[in-house]
Amino acid sequence: xxxxxxxxxxxxxxxxxxxxxxxxxxxxxxxxxxxxxxxxxxxxxxxxxxxxxxxxxxxxxxxxxxxxxxxxxxxxxxxxxxxxxxxxxxxxxxxxxxxxxxxxxxxxxxxxxxxxxxxxxxxxxxxxxxxxxxxxxxxxxxxxxxxxxxxxxxxx
Length: 156
What we know:
Elements: E1 3-8, E2 18-23, E3 29-39, E4 42-52, H1 61-66, H2 69-78, H3 101-116, H4 121-129, H5 133-145
Antiparallel strand pairs: 1-2, 2-3, 3-4
Helix pairs in contact: 3-4, 3-5, 4-5
């Protein structure tokens, strides 16, 4: 599921800030367009448009859950010249697989974003990664246990 940013244009007057080309697990190709904002010092996505590039392909819940939004967003804010990333999934592993440090860092980043925006962190993490709220709570707890979230974790 790698993606490649086609365009990253901040302050581009009405057009999406980022357009990424992404292939889902079924081999369908999609354009994922993001509008990015910085609100109160927190970087994030304010709108998304997903367009099928594979003829006859319909957008499903499964495909939506696979979109590596966190990875695309993170890459877009880093630089305007983006290389394709080998690990495109910001969602974490499937059931039964251990969480990697990258997975837990992504959970911690989402946690901090939600905390800074004063919104419920478990619901935000669940929405960000396409998992149940109970799964988000477990991932937050795992991030705390492994030191990615601490009581003195500074806001970003």
